[in-house]
Design brief:
The chain is mainly β. The chain is built from no helices and eleven strands.
């Protein structure tokens, strides 16, 4: 099964930072756009960030602009989400997803083919 795997979630205090990782061992992530999504309790899944296959362009949800940074490491076949200035509203399960193209056209679920199982991020004092 072609499924990326997330890691790096945990419990952090408001204002703190976490770095999420997304990797795959059986297939390459390097040829596609990659996205990060999250789902808070009782809410729908929403897009957080996207990076093109070339890494030259990124897209962010308004709620995380200036606080989160998406990046990728081709040598490690990995994608990262650096999260700074975390707020309780950032709590949720974070998923990485493989885009079905090279570009970030938005956060439509239909633009992503393969999803990881998710990693929990909890922001609380």
């Amino acid at each position: 099964q072609l499924q990326p795997v997330e890691s790096g979630g945990g419990l952090v205090q408001p204002g703190g930072s976490l770095r999420l990782s997304c990797a795959a061992s059986r297939f390459t992530l390097n040829l596609n756009a990659m996205g990060w999504f999250r789902q808070a309790p009782g809410k729908e899944r929403e897009g957080v960030a996207c990076i093109t296959s070339s890494g030259s362009d990124t897209t962010y949800a308004d709620s995380v602009k200036g606080r989160f940074t998406i990046s990728r490491d081709y040598a490690k076949n990995a994608v990262y989400l650096q999260m700074n200035g975390l707020e309780p509203e950032d709590t949720g399960v974070y998923y990485c997803a493989v885009g079905n193209g090279h570009y970030c056209s938005g956060f439509s679920f239909g633009d992503y083919d393969h999803w990881g199982p998710g990693t929990q991020v909890t922001v609380s004092s």
